[in-house]
Structure formats: C-alpha cells, structure tokens
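Problem: given the chain below (259 residues), write out its structure.
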Amino acid sequence: MLALLGLFTIIIIAITIIRIGAIALELTGLSPEISAFQAQSAFSGTGFTTDESESIVSHPVRRRIVRLLILTGNAGITSIIAALILTFLGESTLILSVRILVLLIGLIIIFFLSRSKLIYKGMEKIIKKALSQHTSLSLLDYQEILGLRKGYTVSTIKVKKNNWVVGKQLHDLNLPLEGILILSIQRLVEGKEKFIGAPQADTLIKEGDILICYGRGEASKQLSLRGKGKTGDNEHLKGVEREGKIREAERQTGETLRP
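Solution.
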C-alpha cells in the first residue's frame, strides 16, 4: 500500500510540475493552450515537434523552462513506472483487485481535482508569486497586460485580394476608431519574409500581408471578413459606432466590457 501512496504522490508532483511549467511559459507570452500542450509534451518527452516548438527553442527564457521540464520529466516518468511495478509485484489476486480499484478511484479523484478551475486559480497565484520571488526568469503576465481576459485579443489577419484594407494606408483605415491597432505586418518581398514592426501611418497594406492586430475579438474578426467597396465602408462606420457605444458604456460603468 505504501507503494500505491507513493505512486499517487509522484503523480500529484508531476501534475504540479507541469502546471508550473505551463504557467511559466504562459507568462512569457504564449497562449494558455499552447503553454499547457508544450509543458505536457516536454515533461512526457512526446509531441515536442510541433510548429509552436520553434518559438520556444528560439526564446532563451522558454528554452530554460522546457529544459527543466524535460529533465524532471525523465525522472518523474521513471519513478511512476517503478512505483507502479512495486504496487502490483508479488501480490495475491484479491489484493491486486483491491489495489487496482483503489488506483482507479485515486486517479479519477486526481483528474477532477486537476481540472478544477478554483484549484487552478489558487495554484496560478501561488506559482506566479513563487516564480517572481525565487527565480531570475524575466516573466511578464501578458494576459493581464494586454487585457486578454477582458475580451481583447492579439490575432492575425491574412489580407486577401478583395479585403477592405487592400491598397490603403493605415491612416486612411482609421482602425483605432474601431478599437483595433496594427502591431506589425509580415510581408513577402522577393521571396523573403519582411517584418514591419509598429508600422507608420503611411504604411500601405498589400495583398498577402499578414496583419498582427490587437483589439476586441469581435472587431478583429469582422475586419478579417470585410470586403471592398461601399459595403465595406458601411461596415467600418458601423464598427466605429459600435466601438463608440462600448467606450461610452465603459466610461459610465468604470468597467471594461467584453465584446
């Protein structure tokens, strides 16, 4: 039975380590979904070959976090296998049946506890505080800074031939009036990718550009679908009007409204 308790302890520690790694990756700017997946992949040693992994290995802080997850994962998986063998080694059929039942019940309880939002938020606060106090990692809570929990998003828009923004300069689009900022533009020039950071007001938007936008999620989505012509112009005016109403409501309530 001690081996079984040891197994549960190791599993809980492993889940905690993965959660710490996921939150640390999230604080470097990765989305919660990508952070959780990459932390699990690094700890288990499987699946760490996706496109997102390139943004990790090229980032010094993320690389350190993943390296620690891989090292602890190797020890953790070995310990789990050893504890599992000791749990069922040399026991009678009755005891084996009881231990299997206890193991299943324990795993179910651990699973639901690990999925609890209340426990997650509590762990998140503790982990963030511990990381800031006891590590030298340069961590920023980008979700808090950018208001990503309050309806704002950082999204990409692939500019198509008939998109409303094609052939216009940024100052002509008046996107800030819709609550949208263009943070950067990725553009192919003679077969090579060109990055335009913090584009100026006179920057011309071209077909094939990838716009990195910051703003309310619904506004960015509508912009990506907006076509050329008067219809697009009317949709822009509606977007400006909608953003104006939201801003006015925020001024009256003093709270940020989700789109």
